[in-house]
Each structure stands twice: as C-alpha cells, then as structure tokens.
Amino acid sequence: MSIGGFDSATRISSGKALTAEDIQAAGLQASEDVARYAVRLADDSLILSQQLGWWISRAPEMEEDIALGNIALDLLGHARTLYTYAGTAWGKSEDDLAYFRDEHEFTCCHLVQVENGDFGQTIARQLLFSIYAECLYTELAKSSDETLAAIAAKAVKEVEYHVDHAWQWALRLGIGTDESHRRMQAGLDAVWPYLDELFEDDELIDRLEGVAVRPSTLRSRVDAGLRQAITESSLAVPTSKTARTGGRRGQHRETLGYILAEMQSLARKFPGAEW
User: Fold this and answer.
1) ∠ CA(136), CA(243), CA(124), 5° rounding?
2) What span, in angstroms and rounded, lies between the C-alpha atoms of 136 and 196?
3) DSSP-derived secondary structure letter, 108
4) How many CB atoms are closer than 10 A to CB 5?
5) CB under 8 Å, gap of 24 or more: what pairs does 103-107 form?
6) CA quadruple 226, 230, 231, 232: dihedral positive or negative?
7) pLDDT at 16
C-alpha cells in the first residue's frame, strides 16, 4: 500500500512518521472492522491524554508539568492518527469521532477512566497502561495492515519513554519516604482491578486475525514487566479482585461522562468553529 508516495516500510526505516495528514493526503480507506479496532485504541489514548492534561500546573514540580504534558500530547497524537484512519471507513473526521460521539459509543478500557487521585495513583495507572501499550504497539507494528503497522511503529518509540517515566517515578516513590511508599502502594492497589480488561479477546479480534493484536497474548509480557517494576520499587503486587469490565462494549465508569462533558463542551457549543 502506498502512503504519501512510498510504502510504510520505507517510511519507518527512513525515520519518518505517519501522521493524520499523511493518511488524509494518501486517500487510504479502512474496512469497518479495522476502523472499529482503530477507534478502540484511539479512545484509550484520547481519554488518558485528557486525564493527564489535568496535571499541568498541578504536578509536584514544574518539570513534571512539562513531562506529563508531553506524554499527554504523545497520546493525543496517537489518537488523532488512529481516528483519522478509522474515519475513512465512515466519512468522518477525527473531530467527529472525538467530540461528537456519546458516552456509550466510546470503547475505551476502564483503566484510563480511573480517577487521577493523588500523584501516586496517577503514576500507578500510567505504569500499568504504558507497559501494556509498549507491548501492544510492538506487536501491532507487525500488522498485515500497513497503515496500522506504521502508526504503531511511531507510537512504540514514544511509549518507551512513557514506560521509563512511570517506572522512574514508581522507584522514586516506592523507595522514598514512608509516606511516598504508602501513597504509591495505595495507588497501585486502586488501579490494579482494572488490569485484566486489557487482555480480553472478543469477536472483533477474531475477525481481524493477522491485523489486530490478540490481547490475551500480551498478558505474560505485561505481567513480567509489571512484576519487575513493582519489585524494584519495593512495592507489593496487589491481590485486589478484578473489577467489572465492559469498556470495550460501551459500558463505562461514571467518571467517563464527566471527562467527556469537559472535553466535548466547546466543540458541541460551537460546531465547525476554527481558530
């Protein structure tokens, strides 16, 4: 498949990243199943990006304002590209998919909807999601869908930094003071019940064999990474029971409604506005 005048393998090897604008210019079109899968990934990234943006001006130090803001922008970039590709199946724009779908139409996992809580809880959530995302995009870069593969190849390079950032903070908090250890462990305990949902397979994944990544195949690698990070941080692997799932089916936590209300309000009040 030609993307912007050359194939995705050439783009990846030359270090150039596939962008939303490239997808639009190349006139690519996703199938409906590929579009649904891309939206699923984009929803995860968009909601987590929105959550992290809250910390700008509220993080424990100025440098962390910038770091979390940059991670949020990386995630927003992933969402933009995935939404743009998905929208080709339905004649929709990235804005249509981000701002003009209702809560039940989102298919994000529950983990990204978990409240920020204190800084320890945000870092714990970020640790779980980033290790999962790194494994996911590493495998998705091998997808038979060249556009998804190119998107993943760019994303994984950014997510590697997200893992390092969360891991370093887990170490800093876990082996810091008694209070920082307590808060980091409490944050880990709070988000852990939402981990299992990331590995659920469903009929969409079955239909996209060779295109999508089967979530269940990531479990052992993600668990190994998390155990290492938790052990190095002198923390305990939580034994919390699994929370109710359903995010992929549009069944969400109450918090998602508040996140969307804040995120979508301006676009819905002034549809089509440009600035």
Assistant:
1) 55
2) 15
3) -
4) 10
5) 103/250, 103/252, 103/256, 103/257, 103/260, 104/250, 104/251, 104/252, 105/250, 106/43, 106/47, 106/250, 106/252, 106/256, 106/260, 107/36, 107/39, 107/40, 107/43, 107/247, 107/248, 107/249, 107/250
6) positive
7) 57
Q: How far apart are CA 136 and CA 219, in angstroms?
A: 10
- Three-state SS for 261? helix
Look at residue 15 and tell me whether its pLDDT is greater than 90: no
pLDDT of residue 5 exceeding 60: no
Say if pTM beats, i.e. exceeds, 0.85: yes
pLDDT of residue 166: 98
Whether 84 contacts 182, CB under 8 Å: no
* Cβ neighbours for 144, distance < 8 A, ≥ 6 positions apart: 210, 211
Q: Coil, helix or strand for 2?
A: strand
Residue indicated by tokens 């870069």: 141
**What is the number of other CB atoms lying within 10 angstroms of the CB of residue 176?**
14
* Partners of 3 in beta bridges: 6
Do residues 194 and 243 make contact, with C-beta atoms less than 8 angstroms apart?
Answer: yes
Q: What percent of the chain has pLDDT over 90?
A: 86
3-state SS, residue 7 = strand
Tokens of 223: 């668990």
**Rounded to whole angstroms, how far apart are CA atoms 65 and 57?**
6
For residue 6, the 8-state DSSP code is E
pLDDT attached to residue 4: 31
